């Protein structure tokens, strides 16, 4: 962490436990209290493991329960161990209701499991099903069609409008609930991968900054808080209505920084975020579906504009698999973490000068009118 913190920035090695925007303070878990002139909230989500009865016990006894999850470093290695031992039976994969860290991520381990079993001549003996509370494969129709096609071609079952509500690790049974009528049923499994329910951190839910769902309530375009103008938020803990991904933050960060600097100079926020996000869905060890879209689930693709067949983002691609495996890690550590990556604009910094000019002219006109009225 110390390697990526800019010079001149003090790293408070503590956890926030309370925010009071009325007096501009952040209370820390250690009891330390910090004051601020301006506040940026980017806490991410918390995993609510305890919301599914039996899940935590099953995860802690994964060797016998065969329950695993990639959403905690303590449990992630168990996924690989359970997968290697899977030779027959039923493999179940789950997705909770929103919010989720990257809406497409829960599917990735399921597709990788399918590919792994095929490469090791075990797929015919294993039944794979994916359970999700949503009604469709993916929120963007263009990409949902691709996933539906993959599902049918590979014999992977999708069970929609269904929630995991209980785990019995000793008996290797999972209990599901139908969203429509609340009825429940139990299935045996040989492997169960769980994406846990997620939410904003508890201390944010009780903060005056929160909206009714517990997220920091900001303007969807400017990232500025709707009630406290000296507070901004981005990322998973914000109320920005887009898929919660790292790619989304690459689009949000330049907007937030520009608007924060203007507010610090006594001006109003002008830069706008269009909801850009991306969920690269790994479909196996050699192909990936590169989804990119903005608000209202409208595709906005970086590469499709280039007229080359292998750059069509509406199709799974080995090229995009290589981009995620090799290019994205380099971009993250060497560009994004140093403030030199701008989402769909890549390395080209957004230009908000025209928006600034219009806002300054408008504010100047209001000032002149106010003086005349006086």
UniProtKB/TrEMBL annotation:
Gene3D superfamilies: FAD/NAD(P)-binding domain. One of its GO terms (biological process) is sulfide oxidation, using sulfide:quinone oxidoreductase. One of its GO terms (cellular component) is mitochondrion. GO terms for molecular function: FAD binding; quinone binding; sulfide:quinone oxidoreductase activity. The keyword Flavoprotein applies. Its cofactor is FAD. It is found in: Mitochondrion. Its main location: mitochondrion. Keywords: FAD, Flavoprotein, Mitochondrion, Oxidoreductase, Quinone, Transit peptide. Belongs to the SQRD family. This is Sulfide:quinone oxidoreductase, mitochondrial. It comes from Nannochloropsis salina CCMP1776.
